[in-house]
Every structure is written in structure tokens, then in C-alpha cells.
Amino acid sequence: MAASTPHYSVQALKFFRGLKRHNDREWFNARKDVYEREIKAPTIALAIAINEAMLRFAPENVRPPQKAMMRIYRDIRFSSDKRPYKIHQSIWWAREGLEKTSGGGFYFDLGAEQITIAAGVFMPEREQLLAIRRHIEQHHEEMRRILTQKKIRSLMGETDGHKLTRPPKGFVPDSPAIDLLLNRQWGLIAKLPADIATKPTLLREILKRFEVSASLVAFLNAPLAAKKQRKPLF
């Protein structure tokens, strides 16, 4: 696999098909070398290549590959679902300074049947949610211009906003931004066939979607980053 065109093997998809059927430690441990070689190593290579490109359009979201790559192991401590492994490998590029919260970022995952490419804010904390809503209400026209760009609409769809059924506290029903304010998350997403991940064009497919989504990520991060950077006067 050429370093300049990181992608996955057919064996990676086969591994995830097997993991979906046999999600237990015995099965995984017997094939851990396959996971390390066919999934973990290409994922790190992909993260490195994407980092290099993101320096151009989203430098604040560049992250060390090992930190951007999410664990394959599920946290089952408080879950009734005791399956120990996720059935996809994911990468999350959080914004610098917001890594431990839920600021806007870029996301990729590979599973047996599809790849997911997404960008936005997906699980904002309570204070973040309020800050983003206030920002949207003040700048909703700018957000609408971003979401209606031809390049975005040709490559990405809007995510499910997990909408509220009534206006959030502190916002009036007749706000010109009410359709956007009802959301509890804001983002763009594309789901593509998994076999795309086995081709040298994978990097290009991800990057062109990340790049057109960068303006939305920057918009959503604006109120969060400004708040994070404020320092006490004394």
C-alpha cells in the first residue's frame, strides 16, 4: 500500500463481516493480528494523510493519529449490550482545545457494508448547545448560505438534527431561525459503499467532503472556540 494513497484491503471488510457475526473476545483475539495489520495500520496511515491535507483547510482540527483514531473496544460498564467490540473503525478530528468536549469536527468510519464521512457538532454539552443556538440565531442567514452551497449539496446530506418538538428555553417560536434552533445537533453526512475503502481513491473521496464541510465546522465552532480562549481579567 503506497503511503501517498492509504486505503484498506478486502480482508479488512471480511474481518468486520466476521466481527459482526462473532462479537466476542475469543474470536477477536484469535484474529487480533489481522485487525492490527488490515485495519489499525491503514487507519493510522489514513489519519496522517488527512492531517497533512487539513493543514490547508482546517488546521485547528489536525490531531495526532493515535488520538484521533477511536478505540474498537466498547465501553460496556453501564450498558445492557455486552458485546465487547464496535463493528466499525472510526476516526474523529476534534478542534484543538475542544478535544474533551463535543465541539465541531470531522468524522470517518469503516464497517463491513459502508463508510461514513461526516462533519459537524453531534453531542454538544448543555452550555455548548446554548452557545451554538445563540450564534445560529444571530447568524442564521450565514448558516443557510453555507448549507445551500452547491458543492455541499452535491456531496453531503444534512444529518438528523434530533429535533425538539417545541422551541428550546430562551428562544421564541417566531424566531426566523427556529427551524435551525430546534436541532440538538448540526452536521453533514455521506454514506458510501464499503468497497470504496479498498481503492486508492479513498483519500480523495474523504478529503473533498471534508473540505466542503469545513465552513460549517468553523461556523459551529466559532462561539465555542471564542469562549474557550477567553481568559480572566485578573
Indicate the low-confidence ranges by residue numbers: 230-234
Supply the CATH superfamily name.
Protein of unknown function DUF1054
Overall form: globular
The structural domain count equals 1
Distance between the termini: 54 Å
Q: Helical proportion?
A: 40-55%
Widest sheet, order of strands: 1-2-3-5-4
The helix/strand series, from N terminus to C terminus, equals HHHHEEEHHHEHEH
What's the CATH class, please? Alpha Beta
Number of strands: 5
| Rounded mean pLDDT score | 94
Report strand %: 5-15%
How would you characterize the largest beta sheet?
5 strands, antiparallel
Question: The CATH topology, please?
Answer: BirA Bifunctional Protein, domain 2
So, CATH architecture?
A: 2-Layer Sandwich
Enumerate how many helices there are, as a single number.
Answer: 9
- Helix/strand class: alpha+beta
Mind telling me the C-alpha Rg?
19 Å
What structural keywords apply?
5 strands; alpha+beta; BirA Bifunctional Protein, domain 2; 234 residues
Q: What does it look like?
A:
- There is one protein chain.
- The chain is α+β, with helices and mostly antiparallel strands.
- It has one domain (10-229): Protein of unknown function DUF1054 (BirA Bifunctional Protein, domain 2).
- The chain is 46% helix and 13% strand.
- It is built from nine helices and five strands.
- A five-stranded antiparallel β-sheet has the order 1-2-3-5-4.
- Helix 3 (32-57) crosses helix 9 and helix 5 (126-138) crosses helix 9 (202-229).
- The longest helix has 28 residues, at 202-229.
- The termini are far apart.
